[in-house]
């Protein structure tokens, strides 16, 4: 039993689960801000990929991961603005607009990477430093899991509470939820539905851009084409499974990333004779099952996906 | 057009559907912009560009379709847009106590912490009124406020309206119901086709006068019909259980029968299972239990199509969603149930001359005002679209007609016509199940009245014993 436990190494398993859940949670909360205001954002995938690319590119040339981080967030906001203009002002179908952005992101980041960065021989920008929180990081179990991390993971943990507070305790959150449920009612209450939706969509871009920085500037210190690998879509599933709440999305993201880690550990440590490719499918299969099961019951904001037209 | 509203008065705006009442009030509330003309408030010329401007002036509006957000609480809904907040953080406790205070002052009896989704329609309306008062409304516009209320709830609303006016406020009361106008209004403005035809008072004008002004010609306020001569049992529903979209029981062990040659009216406040009942009878929604019998044969498992062909007809409650295909021609809409069967189709080939001939006959019989049968249904007025639906259903000579809200949103002329058609088909031996949220329609057409409350038929009464008071109490669940 002790042998099994030491092989499984639960603390490191939980720690890596939390770390790999980071971009899922951030993108899920981005999608949440967006959908709570009434706009579907499947562009999260493309926004994260762009954030990863721009973050890396800027860090590469400025030799600063922090400037890269800022660039990742700003690029996320810019792309989200495109989504907002298309879907809010021009009433383009929100799924179509999101899809366009995703396809565009894969193509453009791939081309620019091959043209400018792939053959670069200089040393890369590296990754965010590991920070141990004084005192807290020394606590057994909890310390290594929560308090010995890199920047994006800390930011994610803090943002869970920030987003929760904004959505459920502030004027802005109430107005956001009103716009997502019944925009016309919000309008008659004197709220500018377009403004609320724009700001939330752009905020979702900032969150997803930050999530993108995780891939290139926290995980490996490099950019690879299509390195987000569909995490933006899994984040949407986490948002739905978490019933459009930050804490729910956090739990759902841990479930998805945890299943991924358990799968790879089954292979590498316990040598379960299942090909790695099949174990790698676990989070995606789980996503399908969870979303299919949760879809009927989880209640989405009533007006999500419907462009709002005045009058 | 011109309209003058004074303080301390209830000003009724009376007119048919489509007369322009709601459009006018949406302009006053800043939801629509006027093309010409001006608005003055408190003697000052004002420009109202958005609801925010209206709210600032002290104009509040209770819309016909409530502007409430179901998953939020009463307090959240009321303060929305005018939140009590400390640096962006909402003070919900403060909001609740403010709402409670206002609710006490006008006798509105609303709990600020409840969710809108859990409230009755009457309570939701009080929340809407509170919402306007919270924003400092001195002029309150009520758009068709009684459409969804029981008679007792209407009395409660009138008491609130009187209390508001007594405090020095003004109320504009939009309605198409004559009886209410006489009861509540101090001044009446009658509108027809976007114009003011008269400004009067209940003392000066009788209901018949008002009806004539509203429609532009004398109107029969009552439906004329002979006593029913019921024959054999045509439609029977036994122990029917149906679930709604949220999988809650919407129709609970309902038993009902309709005989040939009689009209059974279902009275009830909207949302008490009427739609689910109708959909289950038509096969548009699965039944959870029970049986549906058409002339003694079980049809509970038959497809909607085969039910139609066996003699069931439906006038659906929402003609745009279920009644007509707006883009298709009048003729195509008239054969929508039979387009693929002789004589309208032979060997997969449509027979246009037969379709046209049939369409022209129905257009004439049912007085559908069209230039030609090939014009799209979208170009017809609401009343003519509804007459088309009625024509299609009665044109196939069904044995049973389910008429759900058969006159919703249509003009008085069309209402009279549709009522006459239903009664004359009844006399021919048609069994009619009438579902309507307009209690007056049920009481004037039905031979027997079944009252539905929360999915139960709580009573079936002979029309001659069914008075408004008694049916109203039953509709509110006071068995």
Quickly describe the structure.
The complex is a heterodimer of chains A (311) and B (479). Chain A contains 14 helices and two strands; from the N terminus they run H-H-H-H-H-E-H-E-H-H-H-H-H-H-H-H.
Write structural notes for this entry.
The complex is a heterodimer of chains A (311) and B (479). Chain A has 311 residues and is mainly alpha-helical. Chain A is built from 14 helices and 2 strands, in the order αααααβαβαααααααα. Chain A has a two-stranded antiparallel sheet with strand order 1-2. In chain A, helix 3 crosses helix 10, helix 4 (65-89) packs antiparallel against helix 10 (193-220) and helix 11 packs parallel to helix 14. Chain A is globular and about 65 Å long. Chain B is of the alpha/beta class and 479 residues long. Chain B has a 6-stranded mixed β-sheet with strand order 4-7-8-1-9-10, sandwiched between helices. In chain B, strand 19 (400-404), helix 15 and strand 20 (431-436) form a beta-alpha-beta unit. Chain B is globular. In chain B, 46% of the residues are buried. The interface between A and B is medium-sized, with 22 and 27 residues.
């Amino acid at each position: 039993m002790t042998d099994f436990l030491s092989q499984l190494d639960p603390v490191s398993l939980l720690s890596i689960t939390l770390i790999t859940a980071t971009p899922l949670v951030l993108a899920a909360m981005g999608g949440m801000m967006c959908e709570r205001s009434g706009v579907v954002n499947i562009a999260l995938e493309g926004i994260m990929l762009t954030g990863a690319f721009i973050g890396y590119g800027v860090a590469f040339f400025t030799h600063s991961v922090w400037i890269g981080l800022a660039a990742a967030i700003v690029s996320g906001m810019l792309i989200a603005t495109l989504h907002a203009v298309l879907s809010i002002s021009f009433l383009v179908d929100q799924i179509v607009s999101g899809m366009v952005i995703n396809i565009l992101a894969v193509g453009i980041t791939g081309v620019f990477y091959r043209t400018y960065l792939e053959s670069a021989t200089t040393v890369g920008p590296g990754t965010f430093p590991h920070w141990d929180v004084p005192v807290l990081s020394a606590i057994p179990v909890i310390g290594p899991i929560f308090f010995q991390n890199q920047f994006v993971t800390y930011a994610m943990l803090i943002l869970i509470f920030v987003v929760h507070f904004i959505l459920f305790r502030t004027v802005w959150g109430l107005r956001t939820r009103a716009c997502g449920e019944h925009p016309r009612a919000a309008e008659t209450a004197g709220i500018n539905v377009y403004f609320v939706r724009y700001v939330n969509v752009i905020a979702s871009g900032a969150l997803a851009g930050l999530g993108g920085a995780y891939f290139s500037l926290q995980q490996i210190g490099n950019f690879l084409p299509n390195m987000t690998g569909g995490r933006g879509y899994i984040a949407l599933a986490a948002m739905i499974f978490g019933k459009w709440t930050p804490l729910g999305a956090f739990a759902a993201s841990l479930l998805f990333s945890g299943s991924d880690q358990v799968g790879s550990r089954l292979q590498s440590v316990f040598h379960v004779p299942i090909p790695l490719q099949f174990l790698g499918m676990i989070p995606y299969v789980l996503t399908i099952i969870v979303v299919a099961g949760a879809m009927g019951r989880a209640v989405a904001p009533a007006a999500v996906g419907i462009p709002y037209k005045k009058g | 057009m011109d309209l003058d509203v004074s303080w301390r008065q209830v000003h009724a705006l009376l007119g048919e559907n489509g007369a322009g009442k709601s459009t006018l009030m949406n302009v006053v509330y800043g939801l629509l912009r006027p093309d010409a003309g001006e608005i003055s408030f408190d003697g000052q010329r004002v420009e109202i560009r958005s609801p925010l401007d209206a709210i600032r002036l002290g104009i509040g509006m209770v819309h016909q379709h409530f502007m409430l957000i179901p998953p939020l609480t009463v307090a959240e809904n009321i303060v929305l847009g005018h939140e009590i907040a400390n640096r962006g953080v909402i003070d919900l406790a403060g909001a609740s106590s403010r709402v409670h205070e206002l609710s006490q002052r006008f006798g509105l009896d609303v709990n600020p912490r409840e969710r809108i989704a859990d409230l009755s329609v009457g309570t939701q309306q009080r929340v809407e009124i509170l919402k306007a008062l919270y924003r400092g409304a001195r002029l309150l516009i009520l758009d068709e406020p009684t459409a969804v209320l029981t008679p007792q709830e209407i009395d409660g609303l009138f008491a609130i309206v009187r209390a508001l006016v007594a405090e020095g406020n003004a109320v504009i009361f939009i309605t198409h119901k004559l009886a209410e106008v006489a009861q509540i209004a101090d001044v009446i403005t009658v509108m027809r086709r976007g114009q003011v035809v008269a400004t009067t008072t209940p003392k000066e004008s009788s209901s018949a006068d008002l009806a004539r002004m509203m429609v532009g010609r004398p109107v029969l306020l009552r439906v004329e019909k002979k006593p029913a001569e019921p024959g054999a049992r045509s439609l029977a529903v036994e122990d029917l259980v149906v679930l709604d979209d949220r999988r809650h029981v919407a129709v609970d062990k309902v038993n009902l029968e309709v005989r040939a040659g009689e009209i059974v009216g279902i009275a009830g406040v909207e949302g008490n299972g009427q739609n689910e009942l109708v959909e289950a009878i038509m096969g548009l929604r699965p039944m959870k239990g029970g049986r549906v019998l058409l002339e003694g044969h079980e049809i509970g498992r038959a497809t909607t199509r085969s039910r139609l062909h066996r003699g069931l007809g439906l006038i659906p409650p929402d003609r745009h969603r279920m009644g007509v295909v707006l883009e298709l021609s009048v003729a195509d809409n008239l054969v929508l149930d039979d387009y693929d069967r002789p004589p309208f189709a032979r060997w997969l080939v449509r027979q246009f001359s037969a379709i046209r001939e049939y369409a022209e006959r129905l257009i004439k019989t049912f007085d559908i005002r069209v230039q030609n049968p090939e014009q799209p249904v979208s170009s017809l007025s609401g009343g003519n679209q509804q007459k088309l639906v009625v024509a299609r259903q009665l044109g196939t000579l069904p044995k049973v007609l389910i008429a759900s809200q058969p006159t919703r949103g249509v003009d008085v002329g069309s209402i009279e016509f549709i009522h006459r058609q239903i009664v004359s088909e009844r006399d021919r031996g048609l069994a009619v199940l009438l579902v309507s949220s307009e209690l007056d329609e049920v009481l004037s057409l039905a031979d027997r009245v079944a009252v539905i409350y929360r999915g139960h038929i709580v009573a079936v009464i002979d029309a001659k014993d069914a008075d408004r008071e008694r049916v109203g109490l039953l509709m509110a669940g006071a068995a």
